[in-house]
Each structure stands twice: as C-alpha cells, then as structure tokens.
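Example (one chain per record):
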Amino acid sequence: MIKHAYACHMTRELIEPDALFPAPGFSHVAVAEGGRFVFVAGQVALDEDFELIGGDDLAAQTVAAISNVGTALAAAGAGWDDVVRRTIYTLDPTRTAEIAAAIESVTGPGDQPPQTVLGVTGLALPSLLIEIEVTALVSA
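Predicted structure:
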C-alpha cells in the first residue's frame, strides 16, 4: 500500500490499497483532516468572455477546464495539493489517458486525487466536451 501525506495544519493522505488495480492518473482514496472545505463548481472550457476554448479538441478543452478549476481554487486560497476529490463529466469517458495527460499538463505530474469519470450525453452548451469539479480542504 502506497501512502502520501502532506505536512501542514491540514493533512491530505492519498492511499493506494494493494488489493485494488493501479490507479492511472488518480488515487483510490484520500483522507483529509483539519482546515476548511472548498467546493468548486463544475468548470468548463469557457473564457472570461463566455467564449469556447479548444473547439472540438478534448485535450484542449480539458486544459482550459482544469485551468479554470485552478483559478477558482486560487480565489479560495487553495492549490492542487489541497484537492481531495475530483469529478469529471465528459461526452467521451473512454479517453481517460488523454484527459489525465491534459490535467497533468496543468496540475503537474504529482499525486492526483481520487476521481470519478462519468460519461454524459451532453453538458450545459452543445459545444462543451468536458466539465470538471473538485473538492479541496485547506488550512483554517
């Protein structure tokens, strides 16, 4: 079992149970203690003028969406190491390797939080291919 813990007022411990399959691009379990929760609404590939970023390119839209998540986290005083849960909604859930690579191009190759990828038939706008929401725990 691999465990990663981060020292500060709050802790986030990521756990990979030996009895589960190796998690590609995410962790199976996060245990968080202390601090305050930050809930980031689903972010998509739209810029500040409500214009689509990335066209019909899933990787480009993923980079834009996770970058928007980063902007929202920063506004709450949080960062990538504070994220304890991620949910991804996408029209093409079988492209998880491409999605993971795009996310890591923004967040860095460090330990990734537990996540769920859900296949959906549509998002808020017809041109959107992916939406990403997270929960973080930051020091009080």
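Caption: The CA atoms of residues 74 and 135 lie 13 Å apart.
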